[in-house]
């Protein structure tokens, strides 16, 4: 792509209204989905990491099994084909879906083929990346600081807010950036659940797919933007994913 890209026409290609709309939608939805991932992913990571740190008690085996099941469910999107995730979201939130049917009957609003569907699809695929990153950081830091705070009289919420979160700041930021990049590049679940409507649900990967059939230079231009984002994220997070290697 770098060798054959239409570099001379690149500014004009990226300035097209359809391209700008896809870029704007992708940036907004990926940012919203990242916020959702932060709201759900940090507590989930804490539960997964700390449940294994305190396995004792009469309910230990049952709790361990529940934690393993929860971890499998949370990380499933990392290995699940995205289009399968899109089908699952459609069956859950479609007009006749398990949740979508009640929502449609109560409000007359349907989730599929809207910007909300784009956000849900992106959150579905991006959440595991943040959870895995934060859980790994929690395991590496251990529980010594939290136990010390507890002995000084701090409650669980205070300990989490004033001890755990500050220590996890860099890892949370790294997980958020990684999740944002994954959300920005999501295609399979998005096109299945949200469609590919220009100006409504057409994200950058969806625009690449459509442009490749009718306007290959525009597809290459959009692909270069996504490629640049991915390379930048990998360079910035290199020490987080490959510790010990020379810079």
UniProtKB/TrEMBL annotation:
Task: Provide any one GO MF term from the record.
Answer: molybdate ion transmembrane transporter activity
What InterPro entries does its record include? MetI-like, MetI-like_sf, ModB_ABC, NifC_ABC_porter
Domain ABC transmembrane type-1 as annotated: residue spans: 23-237
Q: Which UniProt keywords apply?
A: Cell membrane, Membrane, Molybdenum, Transmembrane, Transmembrane helix, Transport
Establish whether keyword Transmembrane is in the entry: yes
Report the membrane topology from the UniProt record.
Multi-pass membrane protein
KW RNA-binding (keyword) present: no
Membrane-spanning residues: 25-48, 69-93, 113-132, 163-181, 218-237
Provide a GO CC annotation, any one.
plasma membrane
User: Where does it live in the cell?
Assistant: Cell membrane
By sequence similarity, the record places it as follows:
Belongs to the binding-protein-dependent transport system permease family. CysTW subfamily.
Q: What does this protein do?
A: Part of the binding-protein-dependent transport system for molybdenum; probably responsible for the translocation of the substrate across the membrane.
> Could you identify this protein by its name?
Molybdenum transport system permease
